[in-house]
Amino acid sequence: MRICRTSSEMQQACRELKKNTVPERGLGFVPTMGALHAGHLSLIALARAECDVVVASIFVNPRQFAAGEDFAVYPREFEEDCRKLESAGVEILFAPAPDDMYPSGATTFVEVEGIGNRLDGASRPGHFRGVATVVAKLFNIVGPDRAYFGQKDAAQVAVLRAMVRDLNFPVNLVACPTVREEDGLAMSSRNRYLSADERRRALILSRTLEAAQHLVKTEVRGAQVLRDALPEALAADPLLQIDYVAVVDPGTLEPIENIDNGALIAIAAWFGKTRLIDNVVIEPVAQRANPDLSQAPARELSHA
Length: 304
What we know:
It contains ten helices and nine strands.
């Protein structure tokens, strides 16, 4: 696996790689912030299956962290990450320094108005401006045909889809299913911040979402029923601090009245000093199959 440290080196390397691809498969790209886990590797595996060549990036992007957030302590495990990526079949890794991505005097940002201020964008002002800016730069540097992101970051996926559409990026953005631990907890690099007690308590997120799926299965269609019921379920942990509970359109992140045309049910909550997110996507009625509730026992949510 080749490691490129500068934007110019990465651009040249990707141009050379793309000469050996066919249009139907092309170059797949998986951007990461490192501290890789099985969720990241699932993105690599899908890219490997669908594309002729696969490249990845590791860059802890300072512009998507607000003051007081965990940029300084965000886990960095570069050597181990390199071993994982090479074993997974990545041809090139882009690992730039901050001053390469943001040269002195750089003043240009990408901001997706409206949608970028919803869910995590409301909780973390400026976060999605930083995400959209760095991903736009990475797309310009790598020139991928397909780019792979995890559905756990559903709001991020929605923001980036809007950016790709609005700025005419020739990229197919692929959202991949959330990968979970055996007990249902969504995999996240931040899970390692949790104490043993917080790790156990964090299961309330996935179990609450599974219970919401169960309500949908029993023909609940009103979004407000879910909005009322989810906080009541989360209140079973009196130490949990809810950031948001949302039932929204998956594309716009705007609140909806019913879920017949599909919905994103999303939760963000604090366990001690660690903020975790999780979500499920409800398919439109016409496409809906029975939800998979196998990862944890289904629970009824209290609702009117």
